[in-house]
User: Which sequence fits this backbone?
C-alpha cells in the first residue's frame, strides 16, 4: 500500500487551520448557553436547539471534509471515505438548514446582519443544501467526477465562516469592530472567494483528468 506523503497532509492541514477559529468560537458559544443570558446571547438561550445543532454539525462537516479531499487518504482508506462521507453529507445538510433557519427566525441586530448578509445567507444555505443532494445522487449513479465537483462547492460554502475570519480579522484588529454595510460586504466577499476557489479547483481537476488519457495515448 502506497505511503502517505507530505502533500497528502497539506490539504487537510490547511482546511483544519481555516476551520480552527470558527470551531473555537462555536465552543465558546455553546458554553455561553449555560450562563445567564446577555443582549448578545439572548436569542440563542431562548431557542438553543438550532444553534447547538448548527455548531456541532458544522464542526463535523469541517473536520471530516478536511480529510475527504485528500487523494492519499481516499486511496489508503476507501471504506472510511465512504462511511465518513455519509456523516459529512448529513452534517452538511443540517448545517445549511439551521443556518438558513437562524438567519430568518433569530432576531439578529441589523448591525450584524443587514439585508445583504441575510440574502447571501439564504442563497448560500440553499445552494449548499442543493449541492449536497446533487453530489449524493451523483455518487449513487457512480458519477464520481460530478459527485466530487458538487461536494467541493458545498464544502467551500460551508467554510464561509473560516474565510470570513481571514477577510475580517485584519480590519477588526485595526478598527476594533466591523458592523453595518462594511460587515455585510466583507462576509459576502468571503463566500464569493470560497466559491471562486472551488470553481478553480474543479476546473483544474477537469483539465488534469482530460490530459491524463491523452498523455497515455502518446506513450
Assistant:
Amino acid at each position: 500500500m502506497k505511503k502517505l506523503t507530505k502533500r497528502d497532509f497539506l490539504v487537510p492541514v490547511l482546511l483544519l487551520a481555516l476551520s480552527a477559529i470558527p470551531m473555537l468560537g462555536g465552543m465558546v458559544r455553546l458554553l455561553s448557553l449555560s450562563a445567564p443570558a446577555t443582549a448578545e446571547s439572548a436569542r440563542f438561550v431562548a431557542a438553543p436547539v438550532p444553534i447547538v445543532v448548527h455548531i456541532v454539525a458544522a464542526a463535523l462537516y469541517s473536520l471530516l471534509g478536511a480529510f475527504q479531499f485528500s487523494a492519499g487518504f481516499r486511496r489508503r482508506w476507501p471504506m472510511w471515505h465512504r462511511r465518513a462521507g455519509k456523516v459529512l453529507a448529513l452534517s452538511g445538510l443540517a448545517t445549511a438548514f439551521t443556518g438558513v433557519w437562524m438567519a430568518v427566525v433569530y432576531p439578529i441586530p441589523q448591525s450584524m446582519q443587514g439585508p445583504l448578509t441575510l440574502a447571501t445567507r439564504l442563497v448560500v444555505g440553499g445552494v449548499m443544501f442543493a449541492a449536497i443532494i446533487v453530489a449524493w445522487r451523483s455518487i449513487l449513479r457512480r458519477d464520481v467526477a460530478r459527485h466530487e465537483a458538487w461536494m467541493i462547492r458545498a464544502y467551500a460554502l460551508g467554510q464561509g465562516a473560516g474565510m470570513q475570519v481571514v477577510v475580517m480579522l485584519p480590519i477588526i484588529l485595526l478598527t476594533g469592530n466591523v458592523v453595518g454595510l462594511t460587515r455585510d460586504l466583507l462576509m459576502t466577499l468571503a463566500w464569493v472567494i470560497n466559491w471562486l476557489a472551488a470553481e478553480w479547483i474543479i476546473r483544474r481537476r477537469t483539465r488534469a483528468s482530460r490530459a491524463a488519457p491523452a498523455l497515455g495515448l502518446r506513450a
Remarks:
- The chain has a mean pLDDT of 90.
- The chain has one domain: 6-211.
- The chain is about 85% helix and 0% strand.
